[in-house]
Specification:
alpha+beta; 817 residues; 27 helices; binds ligand ANZ; 4-stranded parallel β-sheet
Length: 817
Amino acid sequence: TGRYDVHATEQKWRAVWDELDPFRADDDSPREKRYALTMFPYPSGDLHMGHAEVTALHDVVARYWWQRGYEVLNPMGWDSFGLPAENAAIRNDAHPADYTYGNIATQLESFQRYGVAVDWSRRFNTSDPEYYRWTQWLFLQLHAKGLAYRKNSPVNWCPNDQTVLANEQVVDGACERCGAEVTKRELTQWYFRTTAYAQELLDSLDDLQPTWSDKVVNAQRNWIGRSEGAHVDFVVEGREEPLTVYTTRPDTLFGATFMVVAADAPLAAELVTEEQAGALEDYLVEVRKESEINRLSTDRPKTGVALGRTALNPLTGEQIPVYAADYVLADYGTGAIMAVPGQDQRDWDFAQAFDLPVVRTVQPPEGFDGEAFTGDGPAINSANDEIDLSGMGVAEAKSTAIAYLERQGLGRGTVNFRLRDWLLSRQRYWGAPIPIIHCPTDGEVPVPADQLPVELPELRGADLKPKGTSPLGAATDWVEVTCPTCGGPATRDTDTMDTFVDSSWYFLRYLSPHDDTQAFDPELARAWGPVDLYVGGDEHAVLHLLYSRFFTKALRDLGLLDWDEPFSAYLSQGKVINNGRKMSKSLGNGVSLGDQLSEFGVDAVRLTLVFASPPEDDIDWADVSPGGSLRFLQRVWRLSGDVTSAPGTSPADGDVALRRLTHRTLHDAATLVESHRFNVVVARTMELVNATRKTIDTGAGPADPAVREAVEAVAVLLSLVAPYTAEEMWERLGHQPSVARAGWPEVDEALLVEESVTAVVQVQGKVRARLEVAPDVSEADLEAAALADEAVQRALEGRTVRKVIVRAPKLVNIVAG
Ligand code: ANZ
């Protein structure tokens, strides 16, 4: 009867939901709390398929938690500082806020149309002064603890965006954002001391491993990059200070035939002799053009310059030459290495290029015809009068060498991390200003808390053009201030913060988004946090997750938070692709979310995204059928119109087979949602729909109370995935909205039990009967049933039962004599 008008249904329920606000999270609720979070969007245009996917998947869990009786916090806001808005402002002679807030309005409308289960009362934008006031405040807390500091060092520089980049933002030597090749520049910049937490950031990954994907955990592990090795001191001829190197292979010290210093480290300039100074200078010009990845690459010809000095290998007693080269990085380890060409391929290549000796200190296996041998094997050529490593494997030789070096005062065992401090200052406009005042007398002076936020000065259009220094510098009225300490003339810091700072704590702001007395309420953080499930993309596996983890630990140590980790579980969703390729403008294979929604409706698109694959996998839009999803939704909608029993009818006397399937489906769906197998939940719901249709058409009929029970279960199951259709069904079934808060139907355990199993009854070892019994039959009942069976009684005629062995529910063995 009637026709399912998808778009009219959407209109209708949006209005009802606006009124009911079913997903408003109540801080004072007595229910158990759950915090569900998706990575907040960046406002670049309208929503796309990626947003549709992540929110559809995430909604399954948030909505499920509501149905299970939790109080659920599922907030959303906008990560609204950043370069695209600034570039648009330059192009259009506008203000970045125009682009930003225009797109936010568009996206908000689209999210509401999409029916996400969000508490909209908590939304905020990171570019709102009410928000970045607290970003600045948190920066100052870290600054006070020595966790934010300034230093001068070579930094990654994007020549296109004209700003520095954190190491994490350089991908294969290119700017993560625009793809331009990244170069190095010497600059004074702000850093967060992430390295202070390197070990803890690594250790806590063990606890996260079960609820985070291996892929993400491993990416974080590699990024932190812990290695164990030693610092070894080499005496340099004509210099008082030793030249200290970091090595992970102190066992190979006998094979160190030369040394290499990073060409761009101050050390190189300091060590170089007058004769070689010019050569080093020329070489440096070349080096500055190279990206880090290129520099470390093994398959690149080795270049370098002799510094004109030698150092003493403490184990061989040989004087070995010292070079400067670009394959050693200035900011890793000590910026200098002992080169062991026999065991390290880059050193091997350098030795070949510069005609330097190779001494193997590990015996390669027989038949080895490679160059450097990096594997394990017995030590060779590794003995002098005081230490003999001969024959030891790498691990033993390492610890023996370290112990010796420590005894002799020549070195010490150390742990090293690849993780660098987080470079956070940017020379761009559209970010949170760094709340520091530079005073000629008092140095770095924090802006007093009661003067926060330091709001951005009004700049627009061409004012924002990248010029290598921050555009904020041009706002002289804004820059020139009086020092809060001495009252003398001073200047504001003109850099803004990396937008990753904004997103490192946003999950805390949702707890009390309108609080103008504090960044977040520690009580509420205790009540709601940490985030129970975080859903987002793999592209943030390193940057955002690591930075948020750092912030959480730092805030804990500041006494502001009592969690150790921000995200208890992390689900990384796959991408939506098309025809096997990432959607992109240049390939012309983009799929417009708006078009899909207009053609098939919200629910069909959501259902398609959830049903297509396990959430971690990519979805190829060419392989799925939103039309099929829509037809399915029409079928379930018709089911709800077919039910003729009254609401509240007891299902007790209903068709047992259908009842069993309903309860089994509800039971399994719960486990499936909890293990994030959302696509299977949909498949199981489809089975239930088919069985219900059959019961109506060719079985017990539409009046059977089991039919109502089944269709109501379908409505609740679909409320996780297709909220509009579920709501419409619920109304047609005679209920008040909202089905989203109807509650998960109670599962009757008795209906989960398999109907019966066959028990075999033996008398004197011979099978005499087979009984259909309940799977949970007691031993006593099974024995009684066996003894009462006619065939068994016949077999026992004239004998006495001596012993009955019962193995419920499968076997009864009767011994008689
Ligand atoms: C001698 C040696 C012999 C090394 C050998 C390796 C193999 P990870 O594991 O990444 O920490 N190294 C140290 N500082 C460096 C720098 N600033 N730039 C480039 N390379 C550097 O690697 C540590 C190893 O990388 C160190 O151990 C050092 O080379 C090199 F058979 O020392 B090794």
